[in-house]
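Holo model, dinuclear copper ion. Inputs:
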Amino acid sequence: MMRCISPFLLAALLVSGCASNHSAVAPASREAHAISSLWWQFFWVLGIIYILVVATVLICRFKSRRDRANINLPQPADSIPGESKTHRVIAILTGVSVVILLGLLVDDLFASRVLAPKNDPGALNLTVTGHQWWWEIEYGDQDPSKVFQTANEIHIPVGRTISFTLRSPDVIHSLWVPSLHGKKDLVPGHPATLVLRAEKPGIYWGQCAEFCGAQHANMGLLIKAESASDFAVWEDAARKSAVAPMTDQQKHGQQIFLNSTCVMCHAVSGTIAGSHNGPELTHLASRQTIAAGTLPNTRENLALWIQEPQLVKPGARMPGTGLQPNDLADLLDYLQTLK
Ligand code: CUA
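Output:
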């Protein structure tokens, strides 16, 4: 019996153990709630049916063994005892199965209605572009001077509809932030829409959920849901150009940045660096991670990423810089001012 029930118990244990900010059963948006409640309805209904079926099979097996021991003579073929009762039971259970399946179908349709993108004139419009292997994020606005970009970290206000336009210029990626929504593919040439509304503040981790090359596993992101006032403060700061370097080291670091290969791929607003081949760096120092969730954003990790990116993320488009230690230190001083 234990061997039969164990997959059911195992699933329950695994599911309860996964409840964190990176879990489809720890919902923090109306969409994730719809997915989570659909999952739990399927889990309990199908789990109970599984247990009943296994129990019935075991009971029948013991009963038939006992009956066989009690029967001395073979029964005539046209009078099998209990045959009509068996037919009745099969008919009833078939009917019950159909009703249960229809019930689950109705649940599924209700969940789909919650997940369907809706038009909300007050929505915050973001464009998320998947690249090998990082996320480009653009905050749209009707006033073009208010549009700004960031990378790998998305701030959103709680209680407001967020409409994501999903794009990919290279291969198929998939955006998945389990606590906020289900997976949605980013298919080259076919922009998709994903709409969600976070219900409680928090940091929700996400991951590319479609194999997209060697560093697919290192293509993470986070969504920080915060109060409307905190979001307004962040948005205001994110729109500003980078602060000018103050110390001699920071000024020297900026010159290294602007005169090296860094400017071929990165942008820092307020400087001549304006390429968007790689992540926007205007407010790099305010992010929690670097290299799309691969490393915590510390000075040591930044140094490692700048000098030896192929050690951290083999295959990434970022080339090593081979800077002298003094130049690297000044460059790090400068990058750490980009808050
Ligand atoms: Cu992008 Cu996997």
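The chain has three domains: 28-67+83-116, 124-239, 248-335. Residues 1-6, 12-19 have pLDDT under 50 and may be disordered.
Archived with the compound record.
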